[in-house]
């Protein structure tokens, strides 16, 4: 299966038209025409209401919608290249936004969307509909002529033959034009999405800054994790081993004079050793589970589902092993999502679905909980988003109040 509409159209056109790609491109073009008309109306209103100064704030939702809409043609939504202002307040926010190049690229794109791209979308729809309307007009004219002798058809047989021949040739011409017209919508959609990716996606400098910030946050997160592991070892396994050593020393001292007491201490030491081993295994599993290394992502996610306190259905279609970094990132995203759904969402059912295309791994975790999840509320998703971002992927969360909560992960795995 091709990753994008352009790859599918360029590869095997007949298979392209037998798939869902034509419907997705038509949806993209039709929705683009609607949003283009909205831009045509809203941009002047935004300029007037915002007195030009607040126009970026009023037009930014449309740009955010366009970044998500390109996913209709394959691939993940475009990441938001906007940075967070250094200072609070509306004035500081506006000043910061006006200094960003992406702000002006967004305004340029919305201006194109309201004019050139709107005309492109409308033209593609008209070209697609023209052969159908023309064929209907020809059929309507022919039916009227057949039922109405006064419509101008001569009784002469030669005129009838010529009329039939002209009708057949017109029908063939319409079929050829119609076959060519079906390419209009996919090509218009691909061209529109190309412009959107060119203007709305992060530029090279912005990508470097985003990766730098993500990696800086990852370094901080790894430092926190290192300290947690050190604390767990010090407070858990180390104390267990110290207690084990003291029990063995006591058993050694009691062995000659009080064998029964020594035997009791040895039994306690054996139990302490089992407990310490279990803690070490749990700690290692939190760092990197063995099942993920040995059997891969589907088996590791299935183990997570078995240990979950909420019923979880898993449907992962992965025909081959993925790079270890991809598997590890996807595993911890799913683990965090399952943990959040059980602890915070009061969910009763969770589903984990996903699949692999030639270049991307896509996973969706959906629960029927109460919704209202906030990535900045300490759920651990912000750190996972940085980890995903550092690998060039995207992590999107949809959690309206009342649910459902849907977490989508896209990771490049080429």
UniProtKB/TrEMBL annotation:
SMART domains: HATPase_c
Record's signal peptide: none
Enzyme class: transferase
Keywords: ATP-binding, Kinase, Membrane, Nucleotide-binding, Phosphoprotein, Transferase, Transmembrane, Transmembrane helix, Two-component regulatory system
Parts of the chain that traverse the membrane: 26-59, 107-140, 160-185
Catalytic activity: ATP + protein L-histidine = ADP + protein N-phospho-L-histidine
Domain of life: Bacteria
EC number, UniProt record: 2.7.13.3
Alphabetized Gene3D superfamilies for the sequence: 1.20.5.1930, Histidine kinase-like ATPase, C-terminal domain (3.30.565.10)
Domain Histidine kinase/HSP90-like ATPase, residue spans: 325-414
Protein name (Swiss-Prot/TrEMBL): histidine kinase
Species whose genome carries this gene: Dactylosporangium roseum
Source species taxonomy: Bacteria, Bacillati, Actinomycetota, Actinomycetes, Micromonosporales
């Amino acid at each position: 299966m091709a990753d994008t509409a352009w790859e599918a159209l360029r590869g095997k056109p007949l298979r392209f038209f037998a798939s869902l790609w034509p419907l997705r491109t038509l949806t993209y073009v039709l929705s683009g025409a609607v949003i283009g008309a909205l831009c045509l109306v809203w941009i002047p209103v935004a300029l007037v209401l915002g007195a030009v100064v607040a126009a970026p704030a009023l037009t930014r939702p449309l740009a955010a919608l366009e970044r998500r809409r390109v996913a209709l043609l394959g691939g993940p939504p475009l990441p938001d290249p906007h940075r967070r202002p250094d200072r609070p307040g509306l004035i500081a926010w506006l000043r910061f936004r006006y200094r960003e190049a992406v702000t002006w690229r967004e305004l340029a794109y919305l201006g194109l969307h309201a004019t050139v791209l709107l005309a492109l979308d409308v033209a593609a729809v008209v070209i697609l509909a023209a052969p159908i309307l023309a064929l209907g007009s020809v059929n309507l004219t022919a039916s009227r002529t057949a039922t109405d002798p006064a419509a101008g058809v001569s009784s002469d047989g030669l005129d009838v033959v010529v009329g039939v021949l002209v009708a057949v040739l017109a029908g063939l011409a319409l079929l050829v034009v119609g076959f060519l017209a079906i390419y209009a919508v996919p090509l218009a959609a691909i061209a529109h999405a190309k412009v959107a990716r060119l203007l709305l996606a992060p530029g090279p400098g912005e990508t470097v800054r985003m990766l730098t910030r993500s990696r800086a946050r990852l370094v901080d997160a790894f430092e926190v994790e290192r300290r947690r592991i050190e604390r767990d070892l010090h407070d858990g396994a180390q104390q267990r081993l110290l207690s084990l050593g003291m029990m063995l020393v006591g058993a050694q001292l009691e062995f000659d004079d009080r064998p029964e007491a020594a035997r009791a201490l040895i039994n306690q030491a054996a139990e302490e050793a089992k407990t310490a081993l279990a803690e070490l295994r749990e700690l290692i599993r939190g760092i990197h589970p063995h099942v993920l290394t040995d059997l891969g992502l589907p088996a590791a996610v299935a183990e997570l589902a078995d240990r979950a306190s909420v019923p979880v259905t898993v449907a992962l279609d992965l025909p081959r092993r993925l790079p270890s970094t991809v598997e590890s990132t996807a595993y911890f995203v799913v683990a965090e999502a399952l943990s959040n759904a059980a602890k915070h969402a009061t969910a009763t059912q969770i589903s984990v679905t996903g699949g692999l295309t030639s270049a991307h791994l896509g996973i969706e975790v959906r629960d029927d909980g109460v919704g209202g999840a906030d990535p900045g509320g300490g759920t651990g998703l912000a750190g996972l988003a940085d980890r995903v971002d550092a690998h060039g992927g995207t992590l999107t969360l949809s959690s309206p109040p009342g649910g459902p909560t849907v977490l989508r992960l896209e990771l490049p795995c080429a």
